[in-house]
């Protein structure tokens, strides 16, 4: 592609993917503040919570309370709720989410550990979630996890990822995302995956989701923009991680992406100073330094807005 | 350029740039082991030490002893000694270095703090070092620091960097390097700088030197390879830093570069497993975790050589 577009839209995922594995309980009020800070920094889309079973993901047990705290004030924003099955989708609709995100997995071993299913079962289950979303008039997005590699099975053939994307396109999602769940991907994979995705559809929006586990996150994000990706997930401070990849660091940090994009002339509409402030605040909430490099090192030039 | 070459040569700089600011004294024996481990991992060129004044850089006070420890066994490798003036160059020649690296600085404020000189004085002083190198028949390389930005002056115009490169070309260096001393650079700068450099000379070798302070190191290195750079500096474990940029992390980690390059089909001739082993060993010597992501997270697939 190498179209070198001059803008890309980021989706903030810290309130869900960033926090869900944190051991420190985060209060509902702090989750709401994190979401409101995201909107104040310029985000249009935020993955606000997960409607997973509270016993499996206790950090997200207050999903309904978080939604109640941000509605109706932020109803004009895209409030994405993660739902891994029909029950989750029903909860997301009832709570007022105006987008549901469902997760397929490209690897059977990861699918078994993450969702107690096979890869094919998860692809099939998208129909259940899609039916509820359609019935409620709520847009559906679908993520494909371990698309760049699996911690148990190693390399994942691009064809497996694209086959899943092709299969779920029948549900008319507004967007399909490819996730580098364990942060093993490199830019050549990004470029090939985006080319294959555009071969499937030029109308659905394509999203990519990177972790910076091996310091490839920024390079992958730049490659994705050059390849014409529509959306990039990011998490303020770089919070997040994966329970099945112990050495993994978090999602690629929003500040790190926006810093590079700003200096490369790629517009995001986000306020880097506010993102850095939020990263410092969130580090205080979680009681630890966060992985973001730019939040630690600061902007350059230091006088930049 | 975007020639997408399928190989690049890395230069290991941990023994000099990596260690020089470390507060923990590193023994001469450990420095020698670090250099020998570098050659065992496949490096041809190592920046082995600095011939700065021992009072200014006490960690490098054993420069002659380090050289004595690796000669004559490693005389067929490129043993680069840093020399900031004629006295340093004389010491490097006497110690048996077969390449001398001199440092110019693109910013006056940084030049004053780092070498107590103006930018122009440092460019002029290259002649003193070049005369000694030429007289001894030792190849000269020249680095240009703060080429991507200065912590005090902010943005540095590309023309300033290129003017210095043009001025020092008269000394017939084998190689000129551009250093992102404080880790603020982005890939678009890399591409523009390489294009301007190739406009100056297609015969001198061009090198780039990145720090991962804002997580742009890997992206910059990939951009440099695509733009036809000849050599990239790297440091095992990502050790290093800059005394004038307190929040800076180290040089871009050799493991992080080799991991990405391996998976992108860019050959370096280096053994990633041995680099990771060396990073773990060096972390033990320094008594702290090192910034490298790949040394921490491990290879992918985990069974990779």
Please summarize the sheet with the most strands of chain A.
8 strands, parallel
Strand content of chain A: 5-15%
Task: Specify the CATH class of chain A.
Answer: Alpha Beta
Shape of chain A: globular
Briefly note the structural class of the backbone of chain A.
Answer: alpha/beta
- Low confidence ranges of chain A: none
Q: How many E-type strands of chain A? A: 8
- The pLDDT mean of chain A sits at 94
CATH architecture of chain A: Alpha-Beta Barrel
Oligomeric status of the shown chains? Answer: homodimer
Tally of individual domains of chain A: 1
Number of helices of chain A: 12
Percent helix among the residues of chain A? Answer: 40-55%
**Computed Rg of chain A:** 18 Å
CATH fold category name of chain A: TIM Barrel
Instruction: Trace the largest sheet of chain A across and list its strands.
Output: 1-8-7-6-5-4-3-2
Largest interface: A-B, 40 and 40 residues
Distance linking N and C termini of chain A: 32 Å
Q: What sequence of helices (H) and strands (E) makes up the elements of chain A?
A: EHHEHEHEHHEHEHEHEHHH
Question: For the record, what is the CATH homologous superfamily label of chain A?
Answer: Aldolase class I
Summarize this structure briefly.
Chain A has 305 residues and is α/β, with parallel strands linked by helices. Chain A is built from 12 helices and 8 strands. At the A-B interface, α8, α9, α10 and α12 of A face α8, α9, α10 and α12 of B.
Report on this model:
Chain A is an alpha/beta fold and 305 residues long. Chain A has one domain: TIM Barrel. In chain A, helix 2 crosses helix 3 and helix 4 packs parallel to helix 6. The longest helix of chain A is centred in the middle third of the chain and has 18 residues. At the A-B interface, helix 8, helix 9, helix 10 and helix 12 of A face helix 8, helix 9, helix 10 and helix 12 of B. Chains A, B: InterPro entries: Aldolase_TIM, HMGL, PYR_CT.
């Amino acid at each position: 592609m190498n179209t070198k577009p001059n803008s890309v839209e980021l989706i903030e995922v810290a309130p869900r993917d960033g926090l869900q594995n944190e051991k420190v309980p985060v209060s509902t009020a702090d989750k709401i503040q994190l979401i409101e800070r995201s909107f104040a920094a310029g985000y249009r889309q935020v993955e606000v919570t997960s409607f997973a079973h509270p016993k499996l993901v206790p950090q997200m047990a207050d999903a309904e309370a978080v939604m109640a705290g941000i509605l109706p004030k932020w109803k004009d924003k895209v409030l994405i709720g993660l739902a891994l099955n029909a029950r989750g989708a029903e909860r997301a609709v009832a709570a007022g989410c105006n987008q549901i995100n469902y997760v397929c997995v490209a690897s059977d071993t990861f699918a078994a550990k993450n969702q107690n299913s096979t890869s094919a079962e998860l692809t099939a289950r998208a129909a259940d979630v899609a039916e509820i979303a359609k019935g409620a008039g709520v847009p559906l997005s679908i993520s494909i996890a371990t698309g760049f590699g699996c911690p148990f099975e190693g390399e994942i053939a691009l064809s497996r990822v694209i086959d899943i994307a092709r299969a779920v396109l029948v549900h008319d999602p507004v967007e399909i995302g490819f996730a580098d769940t364990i942060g093993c991907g490199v830019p050549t994979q990004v470029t090939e995956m985006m080319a294959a995705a555009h071969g499937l559809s030029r109308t659905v929006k394509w999203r990519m989701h990177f972790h910076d586990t091996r310091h490839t996150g920024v390079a992958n994000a730049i490659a994705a923009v050059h390849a014409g990706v529509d959306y990039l997930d990011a998490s303020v401070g770089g919070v997040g991680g994966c329970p099945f990849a112990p050495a993994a660091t978090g999602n690629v940090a929003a500040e790190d992406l926006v810093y590079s994009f700003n200096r490369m002339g790629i517009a995001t509409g986000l306020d880097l100073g506010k993102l850095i402030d939020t990263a410092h605040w969130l580090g205080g909430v979680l009681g630890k330094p966060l992985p973001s490099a730019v939040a630690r090192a600061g902007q350059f030039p230091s006088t930049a807005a």
